[in-house]
Amino acid sequence: MGRTAGIGELRVPTAIAVTGADLALPPQDERTLPAAVLDGLDRRPLDQAVAAVQTLIEQHGHVIVVYSRAVPTAVEHRLHTIRSLLESDRVALFRPDLPPLGLAVLARQLRQLASCDLSPGVLASAGRLLTHYIHTGALLASVARLDRVPVGLKSHARSWVPGSQFGVLAHPQPQLVKAAPDTTLPGPEFGTWMLVARGQLQSDWVTGTLAPAWKAQGLRETELPAESADWWGTGKLIEFCAYLPDLPVLYQLVTSVRRTVCHWCGIDVIGDRCVFCSATPPPAHETTRPALTAGGRHSRALTSGG
Description:
With about 300 residues, the protein is α/β, with parallel strands linked by helices. The protein has a domain at about 135-245: Hypothetical Protein Tm841, Chain: A,domain 3, CATH 3.30.1180. It has nine helices and twelve strands. The chain has helices spanning about 45-60, 75-85, 100-115, 120-130, 150-155, 205-215, 230, 245-255, 290-295, and strands spanning about 15-20, 35, 65, 90-95, 135-140, 165-170, 175-180, 195-200, 220-225, 235-245, 260, 270. Strands 7-6-5-10-8-9 form a six-stranded mixed β-sheet, sandwiched between helices. A four-stranded parallel β-sheet has the order 2-1-3-4, with helices on both faces. The chain has a two-stranded antiparallel sheet with strand order 11-12. A hairpin with a 6-residue loop joins strand 11 and strand 12. The radius of gyration is 20 Å and the shape is globular.
């Protein structure tokens, strides 16, 4: 893709970091920046882990760490410890409610956007917005240990005979079906590509049934993230994710949302929460006149937590 009109560049792009090399997907295009991989944070001496993040701050100014809810507890504690020791408001810790493959896709979208003229606060906020455009799930051989979707879905699946395979949509709206050639899951209403990661399960349901039903404009395969088996409760799975691949579309989505200034740390953000300092807007009676009259309104997608 050539240079796109309206998409500028920053000399020192914000670093997008992930907690494992398998979450650093190959570039989507020639503008996709490399991911900073903070691997083995819980196994390194603390001073080395702190130094690694400090170096990223010195090189990039700001760091956005995207990590999964399936990350080991020790890694999450280490991330918060590092941020606390550095006493830095330049490190954002972002843990969206996505399975590992969806999270890796989101991190790559942020790596695409990091090459543009977006401030660190807007880029960090963009993660919450773009999450709403990701459809991700898995084909599972068993739902016996599936505990990251509503329990009602699992209870319903208990009535099915052993040997069945289950299509599970984790995001944006959890749903579970018994996989069959004439059965699919609700998909996106806009054009997407699909990324597939195969675990220890043999099936063509995702590529032969689901992808055509979702009208995927392209299909690629990648390695299954190490955290996927823990997230889904089984290694017998095929994980999938439908996503927006094109930088101009991602850029337009982000820049179409009203920007505000965080009342606590002062950086530009979109939505109702600053990812760097976690501050939310003050009550209406405490809001200053400029904040009340900053044009437009919040996007619905950005005022729903996350």
